[in-house]
Design brief:
The chain has a domain of 30 residues. 59% of the residues lie in helices and 0% in strands. It is built from 3 helices and no strands. The longest helix is centred in the C-terminal third of the chain and has 16 residues. The chain is flat and about 30 Å long.
């Protein structure tokens, strides 16, 4: 994986990081390449912050 070190270290540097997820086989245009999965992740996030 490209930038694996940065991905793994992200929780150390990003305060209140709630999602740190890679979608296998997806490149730079995540929302176009995997719209259903992106929507699931966004909805999970919104449920978490809405409490």
């Amino acid at each position: 994986m490209m930038a694996a070190e940065a991905y793994q270290a992200m929780p150390t540097y990003v305060r209140d990081l709630r999602i740190n997820e890679l979608i296998p086989g997806i490149g730079h245009w995540t929302q176009q390449e995997a719209p259903d999965r992106v929507n699931e992740i966004i909805l999970d996030f919104l449920k978490e912050v809405d409490g």
